């Protein structure tokens, strides 16, 4: 936790540099900023990004509108900082776990992340919106994808050490394509194009689709068997279904 606090202070300095705002040394001001971020995250969870307003936030946090605009620029700035703080908390929490790197371990980690996802749909909607934004603040939005990026890179490092990867791969291309697909799947779920039961299955399938496209030999044969088992268990969820539209849950 101490490392997490230190990282938070460092992150504040970095953000201040990006946006031309000074890093605050006052404990009272830091506490106020943290209170604003805590309440902003609470509002995101309750109402989603569309329902969170600066007016609500001022009442919850007990601060004036000018304080919020001075500290964060606008509503999107508050939302981005709140999500960045939440992701740091998640990194600290997950840092206490032993995270594996085999395909089976990655699938288990996907399942755990889906438990958190299903529990907080409004927050996930905010994550998805922030991930796909084209606003200038997109550099900060990179906070949102750090956990899935770390997960797939961990597997790539393992597969490379084991000699499983095809030669000449542009791994960063496949990492980005994989994470883009992860968030596209989450986006479909937030739009009711995937049910709660389907989401974890399709999310797992996305990892397996990435993995099988870059490995060779015996490991590829093993992944084929894993995919066949997934398809059988999920009622034949195929790669086409990851991206194909379907009617709303209503």
Can you tell me about this structure?
The protein is mainly α and 250 residues long. The protein has two domains: 2-89, Arc Repressor Mutant, subunit A (Orthogonal Bundle); 99-243, no CATH class. Helices cover 74% and strands 0% of the residues. 26% of the residues are buried.
Secondary structure elements and their pairing?
Blueprint: H1 2-19, H2 27-51, H3 54-61, H4 65-72, H5 75-95, H6 103-119, H7 121-131, H8 138-141, H9 146-161, H10 171-190, H11 198-212, H12 217-233, H13 239-243
Helix pairs in contact: 1-5, 2-3, 2-5, 2-7, 4-5, 6-11, 7-10, 9-10, 10-11, 11-12
Number of domains: 2
Structural class: mainly alpha
Give the C-alpha Rg. 20 Å
Q: Averaged pLDDT, please?
A: 81
Largest sheet: number of strands, sense, barrel closure: none
Oligomeric grouping of the chains: single chain
The low-pLDDT segments are 1-5, 17-22, 236-250
The arrangement of helices and strands along the chain is: HHHHHHHHHHHHH
Mass-distribution shape: elongated
Beta-strand portion reads under 5%
Strands, total number: 0
The tally of helices reads 13
Q: Could you give the distance between the termini?
A: 43 Å
Estimate the helix proportion, in percent.
over 70%
């Amino acid at each position: 936790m101490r490392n997490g606090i230190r990282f938070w202070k460092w992150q504040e300095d970095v953000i201040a540099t990006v946006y031309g705002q000074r890093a605050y040394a006052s404990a009272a001001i830091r506490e106020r900023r943290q209170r604003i971020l805590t309440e902003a995250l609470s509002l995101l969870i309750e109402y989603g990004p569309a329902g969170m307003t600066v007016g609500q936030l001022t009442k919850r946090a007990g601060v004036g509108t000018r304080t919020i605009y001075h500290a964060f620029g606008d509503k999107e700035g508050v939302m981005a900082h709140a999500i960045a703080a939440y992701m740091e908390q998640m990194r600290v929490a997950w840092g206490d776990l032993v995270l594996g790197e085999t395909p089976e371990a990655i699938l288990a980690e996907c399942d755990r992340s889906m438990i958190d996802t299903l529990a907080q749909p409004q927050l996930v909607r905010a994550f998805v919106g922030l991930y796909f934004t084209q606003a200038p603040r997109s550099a900060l939005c990179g906070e949102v994808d750090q956990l899935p990026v770390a997960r797939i890179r961990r597997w790539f490092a393992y597969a490379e050490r084991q000699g499983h990867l095809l030669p000449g791969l542009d791994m960063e291309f496949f990492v980005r394509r994989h994470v883009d697909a992860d968030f596209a799947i989450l986006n479909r779920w937030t739009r009711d194009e995937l049910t709660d039961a389907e989401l974890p299955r399709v999310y797992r399938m996305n990892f397996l689709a990435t993995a099988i496209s870059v490995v060779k030999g015996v490991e590829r044969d093993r992944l084929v068997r894993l995919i066949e088992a997934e398809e059988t268990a999920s009622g034949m969820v195929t790669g086409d279904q990851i991206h194909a539209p379907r009617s709303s849950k209503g």
